[in-house]
Amino acid sequence: MTARHHLPEELRWRAIGRREAGQIQTEVGRWINLSPSVVHRLSQQFLTTNSASRRFSQGRPTATTSADDRYLSLCARRNRTATPTQLRSSLDAATGWLVSTSIVRRRLHEGDLYARQPAICVPLASRHRRERLRWAHQHVIWTPDQWRIVVLFTDESRFSLQSDSRCYLIWREPGTRYHPSNIRERDAYGEGSVCVWVVSFWVDAQTSMSFHVEL
Predict the structure, then answer these.
(1) Same structural domain for residues 52 and 86?
(2) Which residues form the domain of 49?
(3) Which of 6, 64, 118, 171 has the fewest CB atoms nearer than 10 Å to its CB?
(4) Rounded to whole angstroms, how far apart are CA atoms 39 and 29?
């Protein structure tokens, strides 16, 4: 692809002068070593604007203003699970300006907000946290023999009876995955489950195991 060259200001006016003197576009184009179509556009510019100077463009205007961008960022931070379609509707209701969802995503990316899966934690009450911490403090100094003789080692697998795709995202800044505002509590078995429970214990230096199925 050939490079695009712009006519110098002086050459533009000299070409206009030759056209005003009666020369045809082909002759003027041959003189400045350009196609007649360029001479034609230059002549049309002179007829409409009375100027032959090069017109500078600032590029395509943006679809949103800086105030719109701040509004989108604020809405995404207040409701981190909002989809681009919902944010677009909020902007339309506030400003009357409807933009595409791709513009919404680009503006949020420019504000350092990205759609990511949230960190999931088990919903625990204050009592649960206190009991777990107390148990850990009581057993932190136990020896391996104490664990082997006293403790029953168990394991379980639980299968939820409800569908949970977990396919939802939140808007968050990079490096803030475990910030409290970006963590979602989720009870995966709130509507019923099937639990397979295994317990193992020591009997005469041998391990015994039992299985239990709970609905």
Answers:
(1) no
(2) 1-59
(3) 6
(4) 6
